[in-house]
Please model this.
Amino acid sequence: MAEETVEYRLYQDLAGWWPLISPPEEYAEEAAFAAGVFGLASGPVRDVLDLGSGGGCNASHLKTRFALTLVDLSQAMLDVSQRLNPDCPHVLGDMRTIRLGRTFDAVFVHDAVDYMTSEGDLRQVMVTAFAHCRPGGVAVFIPDHITETFEAGTGCGGDDDADGRGARFLEWSWDPDPGDTWTLTDYVYMLRDLGGPVQVVHETHRLGLFGRDTWLGLLADAGFEPQAIAEETSEDRQPRELFIGRRPA
Model:
């Protein structure tokens, strides 16, 4: 997660609820699609850096095909991921500034990139990705929305576990000022321990929103050969736009 997300309870004291709020099995299809996009690299892809890995849901699928290194700014989320992915190395760090001193065949940046709310922050993430991408390798960015496709809306979800704990959430996304580079999403989490009352938590997340040309231009500025492709999904939602950066060989 990026620096701003440390303030959000979802990634701190509520992180233990993440597997119920956003179950790992819901990530299988999008992880498979991302794995296919890694094939745009020249040469085989084995080592993958996951920047902003969160609770490790994507990694739980990708690790069957690749050797993953997971980076996140929230130790609480890394703890969740380590329980799910004990076979993967986990590193505490900011996706804008971390330097691991090595390169990878592919760099994967899922929707944690949404917490970049300025072009400066987004540029830093791309520079980090370039620094860790081998010549001929590929970086894959998957924001939830871009300016051209954003629509205000609501969503909900959640799950129960075998021990009787349950979580549900409602999200409401909107853009207070279309002239800037961020939107707001209000979340309500309803959390129930076995035999206990339901705890209700509300918080508001600020998320970045950038146009296609901005994404492609910043990738080029970072040194990548940029490309945008549409996601293929069977889910009942608008397909995301993926931004691909190939590092010249």
In short: The chain has a mean pLDDT of 95. The chain has two domains: 3-146+209-246, 153-207. The longest strand covers residues 182-192.
